[in-house]
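Reviewers asked in the last cycle whether our approach scales beyond single polypeptides. To address this, we selected a multi-component target totalling 460 residues and predicted its structure end to end. The input consisted of the following lines:
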Amino acid sequence: MALDTAPLVLVVDDEPAQLALLSYNLKAAGFRVITAKDGEEAVLAVAEQGPDIVLLDWMLPRLSGLEACRQIKASPQGREAAVIMVSARSEESDRVRGLDTGADDYIVKPYSVAEVIARVRANLRRLRPIAVGQVLEMGDIQLDPTAHRVTRAGEHLHLGPTEFRLLAALIERPGKVWTREALLDRVWGRDIYIDTRTVDVHVGRLRKVLCASGREDPIRTVRGAGYAMG
Amino acid sequence: MALDTAPLVLVVDDEPAQLALLSYNLKAAGFRVITAKDGEEAVLAVAEQGPDIVLLDWMLPRLSGLEACRQIKASPQGREAAVIMVSARSEESDRVRGLDTGADDYIVKPYSVAEVIARVRANLRRLRPIAVGQVLEMGDIQLDPTAHRVTRAGEHLHLGPTEFRLLAALIERPGKVWTREALLDRVWGRDIYIDTRTVDVHVGRLRKVLCASGREDPIRTVRGAGYAMG
DNA sequence: CGACCCTGTAACAGTTCTGTGACAGAAAAT
DNA sequence: ATTTTCTGTCACAGAACTGTTACAGGGTCG
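The resulting structure, written as structure tokens, was:
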């Protein structure tokens, strides 16, 4: 989820062999991998870890893949993840039901590992139009994560580290309203106790830099909720 | 007040005996029940009352259960309801056709009352979290829960936090009539003591914003009952 | 027709929330 | 070691929001 970490993939399958195979190859491809062996575990893992991609087997004990998909897509974490259903059944009706339930993509068994990885990459691209390592852009503001550099209308801006991560979070999901708590998690890190008002102060500082040349304020304050960009 | 929030079940059957049996038992199980005796009545009742569950007999006069299901699922109110088809025919093809039409579940006659109630409960569990998620839409009004943003005919509207949650509740179940007590629960939170008249005031404020540019009022006042949208 | 109930709205006072300047300590750079 | 930058917190003013009340007007029913 964070900019400087590899995408997190959750693999859900009740056959240990499949799990190991996919897990190994995905790790080799540079992803971080977590696993679950049934639907309930999958739903829980999504809520707790917030993966970017969920590879979900159709046939699962305890909670069918279809139902698991529905529950995942109903959770706030699941909405931000791309769910790829994996099924042995190639019938059109299954595909339709799967996609209707909220799945983002569909892979039919037997699959090649290369195909799975390709699909994962494709869905990541779609999930985050601006891929990791690329320049994040919004209006006339550009943010380069690797170079730690921000420009507005071509003009270079100087941001402190916290302001930089704050802007990165906001610009990464245009329009999304972040609560102060969510921003503390995302920008400052989990398990850290800091007054939520601190967020306000840093937003203020960020605004001051962004609007230095009398430009319009790109950060929207949502009273009672938090902040958003765009 | 508990009655106001109990799930609403619409039972559709052309045999009065069946209707009475199901109705009686569902009420005994704590649900609110309304009935319809043919497909047309059913479609109308869904649009007007916005039930949470529709128990739909396969064989109906005026409008077959299948066709009624299709129309129900095509309406905004039906999208929020779970449709359970009830049929004497147990053939697999019927089941597939029913589910393809948009039915959420399928019960085969002869059924036990306990089974029906169990299925209703199961579908309710599955239904609940669906409401939260994507952009809620109704007519020319759009509400984006994640972006905390409301537009009407493309134009941005500014709502306070309470007005926003109020609109979200109303738009989430189009056609459903909310009592003031139910809205206090849903918008303000449970276990809070606030005068019900407060709801009127906030509805007024919400209307003022929604109708700012001389547009039609989308909120319907149901005298003696409460408010509804659509 | 009159009494009563219900709803819409304006006004208001109190509360909550947000933006900002100031400041001291921590961290980093020189 | 000294300077500079950065960070978290606080205090305070102003803005935004909220719940309640009061009153007017329309609907309903005897």
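Chain B is about 45% helix and 20% strand. We regard this as preliminary and will revisit it once experimental data from Aim 1 are available.
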